[in-house]
Amino acid sequence: MTNIPIGLIAGLILAPMILTCFAVAFIAHKYVDAIEERLPNCSFVKTTKDAFSAGGLIGKVMRGGVIAMVLMMPALSARRGVVDAKEVKNLPRHYKNLLIIPVIILFVLFFSLIALRVSAYFIESH
Known about the structure:
The chain is mainly alpha-helical. It is built from six helices and no strands.
């Protein structure tokens, strides 16, 4: 297998990754403040907001990532006492989907890119 098809496949994986990164930035810009308002008793969210509120768009993306992590593991976060489980449960479903779905897409695409590179390495070495 030559490098050209591997490069094309990598490009086909990178293009949706870049689009998803733009979507994450848009979601963070538009919705992170509204989501944080719905989680006023979550100390982890409040601490993250204090730490990254001066960071502009990158800070909002970081805050959205923290909230997405909390939403993906609500039981663990509630057990550690960093979030209010009732607030997380009462957060509207569309907010949860807005944060979790892009993270999962980026995770799958990133590991697809790694798998492509590992497979290309083994193909080239044999």
